[in-house]
Design brief:
Structural class: alpha/beta
Distance between the termini: 42 Å
Number of domains: 1
Strand content: 5-15%
Low-confidence stretches: none
Number of helices: 9
CATH superfamily: Vaccinia Virus protein VP39
CATH topology: Rossmann fold
Strand order of the largest sheet: 5-2-1-6-7-9-8
Radius of gyration: 17 Å
CATH class: Alpha Beta
Order of helices and strands: HHHHHEHEEEEHEHEHEE
Helix content: 40-55%
Amino acid sequence: MATAADRLGGFPRWVTEEYWMETRRSILTAPAHPSAFRRAARNARELVPRLAEFTGSTATEMHRWLAEVRRRRLAQEIRRRCPTASGMGGPAAEVLYLFARAARPRAIVETGVELGVSSAYFLQALDDNGSGELWSIDLPFVGGGHTNADGRFDAAHVDTTGDVGRAVPDRLRRRWHLSLGDARELLPTLPLSGPWDVFFHDSEHTRAHMLWEFETAWPKIPAGGFLLSDDIPENDAFSTFAASVGRPSFRWLRRGALRRPATA
C-alpha cells in the first residue's frame, strides 16, 4: 500500500528509506532521532558512489541517470496507473534502474512481479539505453498474502491476476515478456538463448527457493553481469550463496547484488 513517503522524491526519499531501515519508524510520523537521521543522510549520500564503484561506472554518470529517470516522472506515472503500488521514487527501485543503465543488458530476467514497480524501472532503463528486453516470471498470490514454507508471512499479493504488472506504463511494454507460473518450471525453460546480463530474484523468499534461483541463474550470467536479490534479511540464502561463489556483495536497504568477475 502506498504511504506518505511514496510521495517524496529524490534525495529526501532516499533519506526516509534509510531512516526507516534503522528505526522501523517513519520519519514523517515518528519523533525525530537526530543520530539516526544523520546516519540515514550519510548512508543516502554514500549510496551512489558505492554503487558506481561496484558497477565500474562513475558517480557523475549515476547522478545523470537518476536525473533522467526523475525528469521522466516515472514514479508519478506509476502512481496514476496504480495508486496502491509502493516503492517508486525510492532507492529500492531507482537503484535497480541504475544497475540496468550501468550494465546495458541485452536481457534482464526477473522472478516476482506483483504490481510491477521494479519491472517498470527496469523497462525504463532499457528504453533509456535504447536496447535490451525484460523477461519476467510471476506466480501471483491473489486476494491476500500467505505464510511461506519457512513460516514467514509474505504480504505480497494482487487482487486479481489481471493486476500483475498493472503499474507498468503501456509505452514501456514493447520490451517486456511476462509469463505467469512457477519459477521452478518456467525459469529453466525460458525461451532466451543468450546470457542473462542481469538477474533479479523477487519471488518466494524461502531459503531453499532463493538458493535454487541463485544456483540456476548464476551460470547464465556472463562476465561482468549482475545477480540481484530482494529481501535478503529474510534468511541466510544470499550470504551463503555469495560465500559459495566467493564474490563480495553490494547491499542497499533490503536488497543485495553480486557481480560476476569481469573475466570468467
